[in-house]
Amino acid sequence: MNIIELVNVSKSYKGNLLFNQVNATFEQGKIYGITGANGSGKSVLFKCICGFIHPDQGEVKIHPNYMDNGGQFPRNFGIIIDRPGYMGNKTGFENLQRWAEIQNKITDQDIKDVMRLVGLDPDTKQKMRNYSLGMKQKIAIAQAIMENQKVLLLDEPFNALDSDSVDNIRQLLLRFRQEGKTVLLTSHNQEDINLLCDEVYRIDNQKLSHVKSQVTV
Ligand SMILES: Nc1ncnc2c1ncn2[C@@H]1O[C@H](COP(=O)(O)OP(=O)(O)OP(=O)(O)O)[C@@H](O)[C@H]1O
Q1: Would 2 be classed as within a structural domain?
Q2: Mean pLDDT score of the chain, rounded to an integer?
Q3: Of 34, 103, 121, 206, which has the maximum CB count within 10 A?
Q4: pLDDT in tens, 154-180
Q5: Which UniProt keywords apply (predicted)?
C-alpha cells in the first residue's frame, strides 16, 4: 500500500528551485533514505510531506487511512525535522509529558518506557538546558516514536549520537520495519543508508532520483 505519493511536486524559495516536478511513492513497511547535498531540499521535502508547507505545484497524496478526520493533516506521523522547542527548565520526562498532553494517548509509564528504549534515564532530575546534544537528540527521537506513530519522518536521526546509541536506534528502526511501520530518513552517513534503507532517493539538480540500495542486514 502506498502511504505517500508525490505527484509532479515543485518547490522553490525566492527563485531558488529545489524540486522541479518530482514524483515518488513510499510504501508501507519499508525504510526509505533521502540523500542529497547540504541545502538540496531534504528537510523542505519532509515539510511538504507532513503538510507544514505546500508545494508550489503538484500534489502530496497521503493515504486516507493516514489522514486526520478533517482530511487536512497526516495523522500517526512521528516527525523530527527542526528540533522541537523544549522548556530548558524542565526535565526530559517533563518535556515529553507536555508534548504527550496534546494527544493525551499515552501514560507516564509509556513515556518512561520510550525514554529507556532510546537510552535515556527517565528518572534523572537534570534539566533539559543541561542536556548534551546527543541527549536532546534522543528526546527528539522519543517524541517522534512515543505514541506508536506508524510513519516516521526522521531528518538526520543519528546526529550527535555516540556509536552505541547509533546502533541502538538503528536496531529500533529495523524493528519498526518488521512491525510494518514506514520510515523516511535523511542521513549524510552512507553506512546508515546502506544498513537500513530498502530504497533510496537522491535529490540532485532539482530532481528526485530513485536508487535501489543494498540491504546488508
Ligand atoms: N522558509 C524558508 N525560506 C527561504 N528559504 C528556505 C526556507 N526553508 C528552506 N529554505 C532553503 O531551501 C534550501 C533547502 O533547505 P533544506 O533545509 O531542505 O536543505 P537540506 O537538504 O535539508 O540540507 P542539510 O543537508 O544541510 O540539512 C536551502 O537553500 C534553504 O536555505
Answers
A1: no
A2: 94
A3: 34
A4: 999 999 999 999 999 999 999 999 999
A5: ATP-binding, Nucleotide-binding
pLDDT of 216 reads: 45
Together in a domain, 69 and 39: yes
Q: Which of 10, 22, 40, 190 to mutate to test the pocket of ligand 1 (most atoms within 8 A of CB)?
A: 40
Q: How confident is the model at residue 147 (pLDDT cuts 50, 70, 90)?
A: very high
Task: Tell me, in angstroms, the distance from the centre of ligand 1 to residue 84's CA.
Answer: 17
Confidence of residue 213 (pLDDT cuts 50, 70, 90): low
* 15 is a domain residue: no
Cα–ligand 1 centroid distance for 189 (angstroms) = 19
The residue segments making up the domain with residue 142 are 87-148
- 203 pLDDT above the threshold of 80: yes
Is 212 within 8 Å of 199 (Cβ atoms)?
Answer: yes
- Amino acid identity, residue 91? T
Q: Greatest CA span in the chain, whole angstroms?
A: 49
Query: SS3 letters for 87-151?
Result: CCCCEHHHHHHHHHHHHCCCCHHHHHHHHHHCCCCCCCCCEHHHCCHHHHHHHHHHHHHCCCCCE
> Are 113 and 213 part of one and the same domain?
no
| Residue 199 maps to a domain | yes
Q: Ligand 1 atom 30: the closest Cα is on which residue? A: 39
